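Q: Got a minute? One more chain.
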Amino acid sequence: QVQLVESGGGLVQAGDSLRLSCAASGSTFSGYAIAWFRQAPGKEREFVATVRQTGTTHYDNSVKGRFTISRGNDKNTMYLQMDTLKPEDTAVYYCTVGRPILSSIRDPNMYYYWGQGTQVTVSS
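A: Always. Here it is, folded:
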């Protein structure tokens, strides 16, 4: 069992940056792909980025070039560096772990454990 806790969300202006963190307890991220999803009001949870077990990264086109996902050196932490934020990035951001195959990395049902979410609000 892995418990995940996100932090780092907040209210920022368009163009600003935020760094989200996700800390694991009960186990480490070893052997798992790590990922960030987000959910805006009235919308489904959507894929943002992932680092697979192989170390390869994948991003949604809407955040490519602006967001960077990474693992911490301690294997218990993951990060999402978000630069040049836009109002459309406003959502609750969730970290998660799982072992999806490549074709399923965008499917939230392929992930096992989730944090409680952290709110990111970007004003225009």
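A: The CA atoms of residues 33 and 51 lie 6 Å apart.
Q: Perfect, thanks.
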